[in-house]
Design a protein that fits this description.
Blueprint lengths: L1 H9 L13 E3 L12 H8 L11 H16 L5 E6 L5 E8 L2 E7 L11 H10 L3 E5 L5 E5 L2 E6 L5 H4 L4
Parallel strand pairs: 4-5, 5-7
Antiparallel strand pairs: 1-2, 2-3, 3-4, 6-7
Length: 166
């Protein structure tokens, strides 16, 4: 039902959740993770108006919010994609501007220490983005993983990651 409502309202959109997993950066149709519907409508139809920590779809809401912020902040020719390996590990957003690229992972949790998943390490080794941003609820820290700058940022600090595209 989620997919049908989103599809009927929006038509095809080039964001995430392709039906064919592969080890390449790809584009997909609107699917289970991202909705371009406005947040109040999304909340009313798919989960009510409970506080974020109590919601089963908290991660999807955070990804939706980050996607909306990316759309507002990017240039017309920038591309928003995602990456998923054959074994199912993924990077939530891969943003390209010409030859430059940044990767963005969204964590709806309050992180207390920097953590990068094994799947994300695989992406960093294979594609060497200019920056990896980990959007989370609490941690602000810059570090380096596999030779790539990793910025743990709160949602309102997304420009610190996107600046690596310039």
């Amino acid at each position: 039902m989620t997919w049908l409502i989103a599809q009927a309202a929006l038509g095809p959109a080039w964001i995430r959740h392709s039906w064919r997993p592969s080890e390449r950066i790809t584009r997909g149709w609107i699917g289970q993770g991202i909705s371009r519907l406005c947040s109040p409508l999304f909340c009313a139809v798919f989960g009510g108006f409970k506080p974020s920590p109590e919601r089963a779809d908290r991660g999807a809401l955070w990804e939706n919010a980050v996607f909306n912020e990316l759309e507002k902040r990017l240039y017309l020719l920038d591309e928003i994609q995602f990456w998923r390996s054959k074994n199912g590990t993924e990077v939530d957003f891969v943003v390209r501007r010409g030859e430059r690229m940044v990767a963005i992972e969204v964590k709806a949790a309050e992180l207390t220490r920097p953590m990068v998943s094994r799947g994300t390490h695989s992406f960093l080794e294979a594609y060497r983005p200019a920056c990896l941003g980990v959007v989370n609820a609490s941690l602000r820290l810059d570090t380096v993983e596999d030779g790539v700058t990793v910025r743990f940022v709160r949602p309102w600090e997304l420009d610190l990651v996107l600046g690596a595209l310039d």
